[in-house]
Amino acid sequence: MDVSINGARILATIENVPLFGSVQITQTLTASWLVMLIISGLLIWLGSGLKVSGISRKQAVAEMAYTSLVNFVRGNMGTGFDHYIPLVGTIFITSVISNLISLLGIWSPTADLMTELAWALVVFVLITYHKIKSSGIVAYMKSFLDPIAVLLPINIMSECFTPVSMACRHFGNILSGTVISALIYAALAAANNALFGLLGSSLVAAVCVAALGALLILFGKKANKKLFFILGIIVAVLGVLAVITNLGVHYPWLTVGIPAIPSLYFDWFGGCIQAFIFCTLTTLFIKQAAGD
Amino acid sequence: METLYQSLVTVNPVTLIAQICNLFIQLLIAKIFFLDKVKAILDQRRTAADKEITDAQAARAEAMTIKETYEQNMKEARAKADDLLLTAQRTANSRSEEIINQAQQTAAQIKLKASSDIEMEKKKAINDAKNEISGLAMAIAGKVVERELSAADQEQLIDRFINELGDSV
Hints:
The structure holds two protein chains of two kinds.
Chain A: E1 9-17, E2 21-26, H1 27-46, H2 57-77, H3 85-100, H4 113-135, H5 137-142, H6 152-199, H7 203-222, H8 226-246, H9 260-290
Antiparallel strand pairs in A: 1-2
Helix pairs in contact in A: 1-3, 2-9, 3-9, 4-6, 4-9, 6-9, 7-8
Chain B: E1 4-5, H1 13-145, H2 151-168
Helix pairs in contact in B: 1-2
């Protein structure tokens, strides 16, 4: 079994760019642009044709999205931070769409640490700005010596690890989803090979399995035993697929449909929850830095 | 061409900077084309709703004023009607009393006149009778006595006779 999990594909390499040296244009960037196009199109569509009275269903959705975003930011940060609504909303929608775009078989931009690190650095700059603004530059510098001067390196590290931990939390979850999906896919392909390699070699065995499945179905239905009935369906389907394989159609049947079940958690749930966590941390960190 | 991959976790400054730029571009697009527009329209809708409520309250207050005026007018009209009725009743009463008084007065006058007329007639009749009787008496006396009477005696006799007669009449 050969599983290779790679990073983003490098689409082009431009040599001798001043300041950077060789520049690699990766799939992350193109996928990001695609995500941006999708989001911009969606938002422009939602934001067009707004009316004061007699609103359409589309406008109701737009208003609901806007209101829940405002409520989220105000709920976490209180009033007075309304100018961060666009940033939080943008990070959230970009994160969600980036996470979910992998369902279409497109490289997810959030599976590249640089994407999350970019967002986290922006948040880090804001956190630092608010810390300096609320207590002054001197007090900010002094806070690194708190409670004793010896802790200076640890304090600097803890400060720097805020963006790193934010970025890695998000990245790690998406990456783990990608890795697990790849592993499941590879495992299913291997199981497929083993199963249909065995059954696919003899037509008689395949027909026998199909017949066994049919018998199980009949027995399950007659004795009113659901377990046998379901088992019968599975065995019969396997048998039929094996017969088809025998006739010369080779396809990894097991990889159809089954990976969608773990994907429900790792892509849908994980993707949305990580976007939500990133935005919650953004608001809470900025709020904390700004003090009261 | 051979497909090249980055390693799973790698630091790529170009991607990093590009993603920061992408974030801000996306932010601007979201702000200009969605958030600001929705915010403006929500504010407008809120203002419109507020205005509608204020208008409704004003209309209600106006309606209340009109109702009060109407009720006041009704009350005044009723009072006026009562007043008119009362005046009419009073006028009718006084008029009827006047008429009755007048009638009574006239009746009394007529009665008075009638009784005075009767009295006069009576007196007249008595006087007539007296005169008749005195003449008769004279004649009777002259016949009865047939003798000479002194003038004085005659007078006295007549008077007495008349008086007696008058008392009896």
